[in-house]
Automatic annotation (TrEMBL):
PANTHER family reported for this sequence: REGULATOR OF RPOS, TWO-COMPONENT RESPONSE REGULATOR ORR33
Origin superkingdom: Bacteria
MF terms (GO), sorted A to Z: phosphorelay response regulator activity; transcription cis-regulatory region binding
CDD domains given in the database record: trans_reg_C
Entry's Gene Ontology cellular component terms: cytosol; protein-DNA complex
SMART domains: REC, Trans_reg_C
Record keywords, A-Z: DNA-binding, Phosphoprotein, Transcription, Transcription regulation, Two-component regulatory system
Protein name in UniProt: Uncharacterized protein
UniProt modified residues of type 4-aspartylphosphate: D80
Domain OmpR/PhoB-type intervals: 153-254
Amino acid sequence: MEELTSKEVKQEVSSGIGVDLDQVDGQERQRILVIDDEADTSYLLKQILRIAGYNVLSAANGAEAIKKTMEYSPNLILLDIMMPEMDGWQTFEYLKRMTNVPVIVVSALTSKDHIVDGLRQGIDDYIPKPFYNAEVIERVNAVLRRTNRPQEITRLVFPSVGLTIDLINQEVELLGNSIRLTPKEFSVLSVLAKNAPAIVPYEKISHLVWGEDSSDVRKRTKYLIYLLRQKFDKISSGSQLILNVDRLGYKLQTEN
């Protein structure tokens, strides 16, 4: 297979190949997240992967990548290193805390030291830029065959506000400080976090946390929200992480 230009890739895209998850939420094929701040590179990688039969989605920075990882649980991530604000290594550190999804670095940093350092940090492979299209596919296939592990999001991470929620151990950290929550407090917070940044209706919270909806249940939820705010406020005064949207529900504030 010869290397294709971006224009040639566009000509090969048809309705019979993998789905672009930025446009349609396809779920059956394996999902690959491309993280790169260069739009042309991101587009080219996505189309190469679609032609190979994968569903794809992209993120232009680390914060967007973390959000999409939580939302879509990709089977594999292709990660650029030189990105503004949150670089690839910082993004990788957050991703490692969240999930065991395999990561292939695709970077213009091609020195042996960079490659070895990346492998030591736990990445699954390293593809130098400029890349050959066929090599990208073969390396993707090889990593997926080798890892062959179920992908599970074990932590929800919101770097903009310094919040980490461990779904397995039911542990919460805010700005590096551990917060002890009761099981019901954790249930309310996890419902808001899993749906962030969307507003979660009162009725939905009631059913997910208590299994029913009534005025008494909503009062209990309101009290739990009050307790959560008090605990957050002890660490970050006036943080307002949980917002009440009048007559609609609550939402977790995940951006400063």
